[in-house]
């Protein structure tokens, strides 16, 4: 059986127009070519698709069943050809993006939507990870792009473009003794257990670690749950309070004597200089660069 896309298209057109001659006019072919193609298709399938009793061919029950399948098959074949064309023009087969867990509350999905609109056949994988793990995923090339906070020290292999600023704030359960104070000292915070979002690798020291005693977790959701349960204080995205006003009834943003309790960081789109980025990744990088240029 050797059925090609042109045969399926002719079959579909005959079904939709009701005759070989009408299908030929629509496809820009002579009626004999359409009739011959349908006849060959019937031979390949060992099926009678049309009864040719009157002036116009009458679809058989088998033709009606196959017509529904044909529409889906032609769509898939066109998508396959478009995807193959995109791959031949540099589109990556899969784009892996890691989002630092504290940034899951931001509008990062806007960028994914943009990619889907411009590269509908692209397979995209999204994972979340602590800051240190996200960077390692870039460097070992298990991810091509990362949305993460600015780093105190840059690895020579990384490259980035700034997106915006995001704020993190120190918080504690309203039931904790420290929460009863109008202001706390940095020394009091250091002496209180901290719930810190950190790498899964215990050998990597968390960047926002202040307390002598601390518990680790790899995402800010579990950190928030532990802080609410009065297990320690921690640093969480301010955006969490905006999206979940109920947190304001359970957590208190700490006021500190020595400095304003708000950590503002740039959020970067980061990639490795050693990665051979595909068309979609390069498109997103250039889009963000243009956004920044337009804002200046």
Automatic annotation (TrEMBL):
According to the record, the signal peptide region is none
What keywords would UniProt list here? DNA-binding, Transcription, Transcription regulation
Q: What residue ranges are annotated as transmembrane? A: none
| Entry annotated with the keyword Transcription | yes
By its UniProt entry, which CDD domains does this protein fall under?
PBP2_LTTR_substrate
Return the InterPro entries for the record.
LysR_HTH_N, LysR_subst-bd, WH-like_DNA-bd_sf, WH_DNA-bd_sf
Protein name, per record? LysR family transcriptional regulator
- SUPFAM superfamilies, per database record: Periplasmic binding protein-like II, Winged helix' DNA-binding domain
Instruction: Write down the PROSITE patterns for this protein, in alphabetical order.
Output: HTH_LYSR (PS50931)
The protein's superkingdom reads: Bacteria
Q: Where is the HTH lysR-type domain?
A: 1-60
Family label = Belongs to the LysR transcriptional regulatory family.
